[in-house]
Design goal:
Distance between the termini: 5 Å
Number of domains: 1
Shape: globular
CATH architecture: Alpha-Beta Barrel
Low-confidence stretches: none
Radius of gyration: 19 Å
Strand order of the largest sheet: 1-2-3-4-7-8-9-11
Order of helices and strands: EHEHEHEHHEEEHEHEHHHHEHEH
CATH superfamily: Luciferase-like domain
CATH topology: TIM Barrel
Strand content: 15-25%
CATH class: Alpha Beta
Largest sheet: 8 strands, parallel, barrel
Number of helices: 13
Number of strands: 11
């Protein structure tokens, strides 16, 4: 298993994200994933810079850590032709270290362009067309496309990397697993559910990477770690089918008003117990995941986390039997 670091735009300002990426590479993380949001989940997080500008800066500030969007929605806020251009550019700037993570999106981020939030079936139809367009443009030459949801008129990406940009697709159920198995180079998920991998395999995903993400709240003071996790990450337990539909931070605040600190501490490793994180990572390995990105909660808690990860956490994870 490879272990990654999460550059979370919702909780950290853009300049600090670049510094954090450099620190994560120095700490020994194998890859870094970056969220692509227009809004934070909760107002307490307080940020949401433009991921693609940050990725360009990170690509120049780092040397070997792999980069990935986790994830970009190419069906509302961005037209897929623009996503193809951005992906090719970041792949070039990073010397091929970039993977384009795609998903059907959340209302939280995509409502800003208007037009209403489509139901899941429609979003999946749109995602299929978007992936077809992106792959065609990244393949080189002029592209014309007339679909149910998107059009491309003589589109072309002029600056392309030597190797094709890898595409991952986020999954949460049978329909998205079928799409990912057929269309993606990797599966992305935020829960260690082996059934997702089985459905991915059945649709053609056998042998392809599975990339997960696990929140943690490191602090030498466990109570402080729980407090921070509850303030900023209590939304995480809602599940993707719920989280995709809520329209803004106030909705997430209302939906999670009865989530307790004990609830959060029961699902997210809090404090400095390396064993708790290793045990939870083992669940991801058991479910067939090949890559696991850790997401340290709290924008101002990244430096101590990276130091701790280098000294204690990553060595323990790499020496675990599942690794």
């Amino acid at each position: 298993m490879q272990f990654g670091y999460t550059l979370m735009c919702e909780q950290t300002d853009p300049r600090s994200l670049v510094r954090d990426a450099v620190a994560a590479e120095a700490a020994g993380f194998d890859f870094a994933v970056m969220s692509d949001h227009a809004f934070p989940w909760l107002e307490e997080q307080g940020h949401s810079g433009y991921a693609w500008s940050v990725l360009g800066a990170v690509a120049q500030a780092t040397e070997q850590i792999e980069l990935m969007t986790y994830v970009t929605c190419p069906i509302k806020r961005y037209h897929p032709a623009i996503v193809a251009q951005k992906a090719a550019t970041v792949a070039l700037l990073s010397d091929g270290r970039f993977t384009l993570g795609l998903g059907a999106g959340e209302n939280l981020n995509e409502h800003v362009t208007g037009g209403g939030w489509p139901p899941a079936n429609t979003r999946h139809e749109m995602l299929v067309e978007a992936v077809e367009i992106i792959r065609s443009l990244l393949g080189g030459g002029y592209v014309n496309y007339r679909g149910t949801h998107f059009e491309v008129d003589s589109g072309r990406v002029w600056d392309l990397p030597d190797e094709a940009v890898r595409i991952g697709i986020a999954v949460s159920g049978k329909q998205s697993c079928a799409l990912a198995g057929e269309l993606a180079d990797a599966m992305i998920a935020v829960e260690p559910d082996g059934d997702l991998g089985a459905a991915f395999d059945a649709a053609g995903g056998t042998g392809k990477p599975r990339i997960g993400q696990m929140p943690v709240s490191f602090d030498r003071d466990r109570d402080a770690a729980i407090e921070r996790a509850h303030a900023q990450f209590r939304w995480f337990g809602g599940g993707w089918k719920v989280n995709a539909e809520l329209p803004g931070p106030s909705a997430f605040a209302a939906a999670t008003q009865f989530v307790t600190k004990a609830d959060v501490a029961g699902s997210i490793p809090c404090g400095d117990d390396v064993g708790a994180i290793v045990d939870q990572a083992a669940e991801w390995a058991k479910a067939g995941f090949t890559h696991l990105a850790l997401c340290q909660i709290g924008g101002d808690a990244q430096d101590p986390f990276n130091e701790w990860a280098a000294a204690e956490l990553l060595p323990a994870l790499r020496s675990a039997s599942f690794a």
